[in-house]
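Notes from the 1:1 (GR / supervisor)

We went over the backlog. Supervisor wanted to see one worked example end to end before approving the batch request, so GR pasted a single chain during the call. The sequence is below; no edits were made to it. Supervisor asked that the structure be written out right there so they could see what the output format looks like.
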Amino acid sequence: MTVFEITGASVADMELIRTWADEEGWNPGDSDRFAFAVADPAGFLVGRLDGEPVACVSAVRYGSGFGFIGFYIAHPAVRGQGYAIRLWQAAMERLEGRLVGLDGVVDQQDNYRKSGFRPAWNNVRYEGVPRAGGTGSSGAGAGGFEVVDAASLPFGLLAAYDRRFFPESRHAFLSAWIALPGRTALAAVRGGRIEGLGVIRPCSGASRIGPLYASTPDIAAALVHRLAEHTPDGVVAVDAPDANPAATALLAALGLTPSFEAARMYTGPAPEVALAELYGVTSLELG
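Structure output shown during the call:
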């Protein structure tokens, strides 16, 4: 008799989940799983068929009122057999009573609508080598801002700045996301205030920049150029919300081209964030 059970993910499972995401063409970060684990250690679920992993999903809780669904994958060998929907139901039960968000790939968006999700905007991945332009100096730019190592700033300031772009505080996740080996985190500072933040991480494909926050397009451009210097080939990818036209216009002007798209969807009204300064989301898996 075949036995299907749902368990929390192990360390080995987290590596397998990353492999599956890579096979889907999502280009996950090489070390994302280490930051994901501290965001909500119990938030990653695996469906096992006779003990073998066949499906996965993340259902991460933030604060007291927000949750995010990601990594919803069934192994091709078991698709259409009902195992994934049972895992989905377990994930939604874990987030019951919360506003829930996700980034839905095109072929799954109708299914998410059936579960009560409604689109807020599209996150469009722009990819390529940034063209010359914008402020790339490590000193003060023409706009009077300075690009510095984000690790040199008080973490409390970074966490407060990140909170403007996310529905709940996520201090543990943010500290890991910025500091993991192989990553570079840069901040734009002007007059003692943080006016931009960008983090780049190595991936199996193009190095991904996320988050990318900036008070102006010039600051966003400066961060993209400086972060691209920390890649082996200069190729970067940014998941930009099309609800911020300044973001998509800037990335197109830098010569980056769309390569992937997912809809940001919520079970209720979209949370209020500083969307006009959001040039790239942190992660399609955890928001």
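Supervisor's comment: The first helix runs from residue 11 to 23.
Batch request approved.
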